[in-house]
TrEMBL record:
<feature type="domain" description="Peptidase M14">
    <location>
        <begin position="58"/>
        <end position="233"/>
    </location>
</feature>
<dbReference type="GO" id="GO:0008270">
    <property type="term" value="F:zinc ion binding"/>
</dbReference>
<keyword id="KW-0732">Signal</keyword>
<dbReference type="InterPro" id="IPR000834">
    <property type="entry name" value="Peptidase_M14"/>
</dbReference>
<keyword id="KW-0645">Protease</keyword>
<dbReference type="Pfam" id="PF00246">
    <property type="entry name" value="Peptidase_M14"/>
</dbReference>
<comment type="similarity">
    <text>Belongs to the peptidase M14 family.</text>
</comment>
<keyword id="KW-0378">Hydrolase</keyword>
<protein>
    <submittedName>
        <fullName>M14 family zinc carboxypeptidase</fullName>
    </submittedName>
</protein>
<dbReference type="InterPro" id="IPR029062">
    <property type="entry name" value="Class_I_gatase-like"/>
</dbReference>
<dbReference type="GO" id="GO:0006508">
    <property type="term" value="P:proteolysis"/>
</dbReference>
<feature type="signal peptide">
    <location>
        <begin position="1"/>
        <end position="18"/>
    </location>
</feature>
<dbReference type="GO" id="GO:0004181">
    <property type="term" value="F:metallocarboxypeptidase activity"/>
</dbReference>
<keyword id="KW-0482">Metalloprotease</keyword>
<keyword id="KW-0862">Zinc</keyword>
<dbReference type="GO" id="GO:0005615">
    <property type="term" value="C:extracellular space"/>
</dbReference>
<keyword id="KW-0121">Carboxypeptidase</keyword>
Amino acid sequence: MRGCLTVLLALFWGTASALPIEAFQLDGVEYDDSIQTPDEFLGYGLGERPIRHDKLVEYLSGLAETSDRMQVETIGYTHEGRPILFFAVSSPENLLNLEEIREFHLAALRGEPVPEEQPAVIWINYGVHGAESAGMDASVPALYHFAAAQGEEIEEQLDDAVVLVVAILNPDGHSRRVDHVETFGGEVPVTDPAHAQHDLWTEARTNHYWFDLNRQWLLLSQPEAQAWVSKWQEWKPQVSADFHEMGSQSTFYFHPGEPKRKNPLIPDQARELTKDIAEYHREFLDSEARLYFTEQGFDNFYIGKGSTYPQVNGGLGILFEVGAARGGAVESPSGERSYADNIRTHFRTTLSTIEGTLAAKDEIEAYQREFFESAATEAQRDATKGYVISAGKDKGRMTRFLNLLSTHDIVAHRLAEPLDVNGQVYEPEDSYVVPLQQPQYLMIRGIFDRVTEFEENIFYDVSGWTLPLAFDLHHAPLKNRVSRGDAAGRYDQDLLGELWEGEEEETRRNLAESSYGYVMPWADRRAPGALYKLLDEGLLARIAREPFEVRTPEGIETFSAGTVFIPFARQEQSEEEIRTLLEEAMNEFGIDVLPVSSGAGDVATASLGGASFEPGREPSVVLPYDGGLARYDVGEVWHLLDHDLNMPVTLVHKDRLGGLDWSRYTHLLMVGGGAQLPQGTADRVGQWIREEGGTLVAMRQAAVWAQNTYLEDGQETSEDEGPEDGRTRLNYAEMGTRDAEHVVAGSIVATDIDTTHPLAFGYTDRDLPSLRNTSLTLTWPEDNPYAVVSAYKPSGSVLLTGYMSERRRGEIAETPAVIAERYGRGAVVLMADNPVFRGFFHGTERLLVNAIFFSNLIDRPSGDYTAVEE
């Protein structure tokens, strides 16, 4: 068999970019002629070029219509409107009873009695990274095989398993990749890796907003991930396989991963069972004398990846990586690599995953049931019994967090009565309790735990992601017994109010009557979107520079700085038109708009027409991309403004900034990466800020560049200046470990924020966690003691969760995190970190939003403060 197959493949490897369907059909297996082959549908062989998403949808949906072995469901849509298809593959009898099988499977995990010999549940991820097209296209021969293969072996497999296939996970990125391959493809294949066809890695890897979707299994800020994770939790598969491509110079990788680089929440037995399944991958790869490696290079630490997420949810997760051939074929150090062969390898390891799972079916079923039984036992033993959480008056932020918990199958209850934890009072109207005594105990810990000590200091991804910190929630552990000085509250079942079952469908709210005007509090993360809508409609809005009291129909009420006042006076619109616009904004964004009955309150600052209110300015934002700028960072900023706040953003290639009509824009947002501008462009931007009142908001590396370029007290700052003694000598073998020791691997750090500053309007306390993934630092302004909006805390308390060496802690301790200064008529805002990291750092995103809406509120001090002492 091997000899015949080798001869067949040799006819195509290195001489053609496609493989015929016979190369994908198993030796000795008959295939149903009534099932259309991929070749017949496409008109060319698999691997000649990536298959367009619309063709994938058409062919795979057609298989489901033709075959009684599969069902198809659209579980969601991408930002660009493409469907995400979900296939259930099994025997016809199993498919007729699919819901019953699912319910029995979940009942068994709850420890309930179920009929014996239930099918194994296997999940296949095809194509989370659009640039890794072999993963998507492998779904075609796989589903064709399930539909058309005949014989006792396939029938037994389908009797014994329900195979759940997501094809494909990232349609928008995949479509971008196909367009690129076709644009740069010619009649003659070019295997030179420098050829443009083999490029477009980051752009196609990501989704529409340039998010890496393989980091979204935990974070859920993107619709694609929300769709898969919801469906995954509906089934809780026993084994999940995740198919990728890596650099062309590499061979083939499969899990288990690095032995020591494993999240401590993952049981050791998961690794052993994964090794058992791996023997079936080895058997196939060895049969064709293929190069491969395992247990090297890839870890299982960050729980938000497709192969790691299952492992903290009771299943096994298996990562597959094949060296990329992004066109038809590409040269590599280990020989020419064929795209068609990559598809075939992923297809065959799909089959080996199923084979290995069924061979260890009893052991895997027992492991999964034991996982949840053990979780219940551990939850009983845990001194912490739950967490209380609150976002204060920010209903938008709280709802997003609760939705995230619910998607991960985590139960939360409304707090039933007020609770005081070390002076922080949690109120029932805006607080919730997450009890640990529930099946998702380990997942809750993965979300809430803070970890700062690690066996290894090498990380493939971030080392800290505690979500309540990322959301800047007030939160505290709850225990049965609270010791003196313990930062925990007392747990009691009486604290558990009604179960949170999703945001209630609100009926349309009517705006209350007012004869004077309305105020819109700034606390809710959705308020900026509403403000932009009002400004764009031409309404005059006034921004409170400081807290104020004002008369309302309910009496005197106090509002915080940043509150938006919309008067009836001096508006072009009629009172009725203003009410209509406000009511639309209130319902569209889910925010509160409250009536005021007078322009005066009980204190002088309350006069709504006074100097303590500043006219709001409609922002016009330009966001450069490419030219070395970090594409992920650009996408995260774009997503917040465009998707969440419904604000237009002008995306411009960085190299075109010099030719813009700058009179059109109020704000230039520059993210990290290669931020330096050509001298002529930098001079024009400086002129726009100084003379035309523009605002530059610069993040990470761009912040360092902007400080050195525009603010006189900036000094050149290096990410790592290295040891002073150039004669230091170390053993070469230590290089990897020592380098990793000082990498800032995505940790969460503590900052102190000045809540009176316009950029901090909406924050209620001075503690603000921030995501740090560079070692750069900003310098302190020398002549403006009011310029530092937030600063990192001292070295002993700066690290909240994740890994950071003592050296790096010392370097960032008590340095500025955010600086805001006037620069001529305009302003320069510097942010050492990315405030919208991966679309889930909702705590710091307000800094960016305030820099856009309130930069005109930043004042210049009138005195000389160079000699001021604290």
